[in-house]
Specification:
Helix content: 40-55%
Strand content: under 5%
């Protein structure tokens, strides 16, 4: 499972209610990430596999935790 950044931006426009910004100088034209190595070597499996689910859950987390990880993390999982 991998996604192009442009595809990510195009599909995420509806969640944020605004368009995406233009590519800045120095930003790669194509950037692809894959969970393949983590799956193969560690047996890890992603919880969400569709791009829409990934974007929706990331946006929901961001809206609920605008301060980032400092608000979200606690050793007790609260």
């Amino acid at each position: 499972m991998s996604f192009y950044i442009l595809t990510l931006f195009q599909r995420s426009r509806g969640f944020a209610g605004r368009g995406y910004w233009a590519r800045r100088p120095g930003v790669p034209a194509v950037l692809v990430a894959s969970a393949g190595k983590a799956i193969e070597e560690m047996g890890w499996r992603p919880r969400y596999t569709s791009l829409e689910e990934i974007i929706a859950t990331a946006w929901m987390w961001h809206r609920n935790k605008p301060g980032g990880y400092s608000q979200a993390y606690s050793p007790e999982g609260r």
